[in-house]
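Hey,
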Amino acid sequence: MSLSDLCTKHGDDMFGKQKPAGGRFPLLIKLLDCHELLSVQVHPDDTKAQKLLGEPNGKTEAWVILDTAPAGIIYAGLRPGITRADLERHLQAKSVEQCLYAFTPQPGDCVALPAGTVHAVGGGVVMAEVQQSSDATFRLYDWNRLGTDGKPRQLHIKEALASINWEAGPVQPIRETGGPSTLQQHLVQYPFFHMDRFSLTRSLELPFSGRMSIWMITKGQAELHSPPMDYRRICRRGDTVLVPATARGLSWNPVPAEGAATLLGIHLP
């Protein structure tokens, strides 16, 4: 059964009071392996997506870095003081990278990218991406590359410039914290989803009671346990689990032979 079918047939059980209008699943969860540098993109917010694309919502997203090669790089936001006129000038000169804030990512970094943030990633970065359910993307710059047909890929400069949040500035990574016991680290709190990181060294009863939640194992292994049915399942790095709002009494438990595990917990506000 697809997520769309679940939303339609079991929406109340899935979402509780957070049931989305129209029955559309509100989030996309991805694992991305960015060997090459992706194009510089901008996602519109809900208002701009409706105006420019006729789509119901834009795309706010967040990344969590799982692994990175020495050449890995993230561009997130504009450098301090960069104006629209500056960016337009560098677009003409094909030197947009001079306008972008860049940093070398570390495993565990979280990068919050509200709609309107200019961004790109590549050079061997593996990451988890959580976003609003939308394909609203404007390609601002493609590093002067040619497509498979020998021609430059299509850009959406007018729409991208109209979608940029010019007040946002650089995006600093949220570094991973650690501790001796089960630790909850708040990562992002958007109007569209919240995301927390949990360092699991002892049993953790699932929080977010009465809300649908999505869990991804980003390090180690963890056992999901439901006492009423004595259901147990070992989840490994990269596994993703959807827990309906009506689920009760579930817990995550560390796997003794594996040591501490790290999990992302995502839920609707």
